[in-house]
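Lecture 7 notes: from sequence to structure.

We start with a single chain of 193 residues. Read the sequence below before looking at the structure.
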Amino acid sequence: QPPRLDYQSPEQAYTAAKAFVHQLEQENPLGRNRDNWQNAARNFRKIATAERKGTLGPSGLFMTAKTYQRMFERFKQPRDLEQAQHTFLELADLYPGHPFADDALFEAAQCAQQQPGQQQLAADLYQKITTLYPTGDHRPDAHDDEARVGHGRVGGHGLCHAGQKTDAPPRIMPPAVFSFSCPISFSLLPTFS
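Now the structure, written as tokens:
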């Protein structure tokens, strides 16, 4: 059952939403139901909207996008990946000075690389990271991936958009970038007791 956010403080709602996503990540019937994941994404979106000018606005958007990204990984529905990409770009646009801005652009580029016909967008986003965030933690990866995209390779994952192997070496990303289940996956996000 998704948490009710109606009568909670934003911090309590955020903590409850994170706990619900953690439950969904466990291999159980709750996590196999796509509707539950949609509820989780909506909960984070509600928090982001309510806290647009507060401290949880960027975190709520980031977690909305990560939830859609995880939905795509699980259910393989292209609209989930599109929604993740859109939300990451929204975060970068609304909060360009926030520490998540370069992360959001990087994740949006990663989403674009997985979609046919969006290779140029991915390259543009990687370029934007190297230009706007030259000291950001994703700058080296963005620079490398920008070069790979320009050569028809997708993000160093060794796959082109059609799923064919390439000679691009695989790149291991830290678990914080891709997984909710890793204990450090929320390490950059605020926590509340």
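The two ends are 21 Å apart (CA to CA). Keep this in mind for problem set 3.
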